[in-house]
Amino acid sequence: MTDQGLCRHCQDALGRGAEYTHGRRSRIAESLPNTWYGVWAPAGTPHDIITKINRAVVAALADSNVRKRFAYMGLEVPPAEQQTPEALEMLQRAEIEKWWPIIKASGIKAE
User: Fold this and answer.
1) 78-86: which pairs have CB atoms within 8 A and are 24 or more residues apart?
2) Residue 19: band (very low, low, confident or very high) from pLDDT cuts 50, 70, 90
3) Of 36, 79, 31, 89, which is closest to residue 58 (Cα–Cα)?
4) What CA–CA distance (Å, rounded) separates 81 from 87?
5) What are phi and psi for residue 107, nearest 5 degrees?
6) pTM of this prediction?
């Protein structure tokens, strides 16, 4: 299945699309609700290791081949200021604050 075919499959079957921390929808899946993703490490990982991982991710996202591949998949690389552990933490906290009351009130449980 091609990446674009997968995107259509996700749209049909899951109703979910891809988003980075900049909050913009994929240009090939604009009708899909936003989702986001990032890179996490176990709690207690030393700060210098987190910094090293983040530098590697930022370098990869700056690579023209990676950007071409992302564009092919309809994804966009977030602005540099949103490619930090702090930006991901802020986004995650905001999403938890937004969705936790709804999850709790609805009685949704992890399976």
Assistant:
1) 78/20, 78/21, 78/22, 79/22, 82/20, 82/21, 82/22, 83/21, 83/54, 83/57, 83/58, 84/54, 85/50, 85/54
2) very low
3) 79
4) 8
5) 80, 15
6) 0.64
Q: How much of the chain exceeds pLDDT 90, in percent?
A: 41
Sequence spans of domains, the chain: 3-106
Look at 27 and 55; give whichever has higher pLDDT: 55
The one-letter code for the residue type at 17 is: G
85-101 as b/e: b if 16+ CB within 10 A: bebbeebeeeeeeeeee
* Closest C-alpha among 102, 89, 72 to residue 3: 72
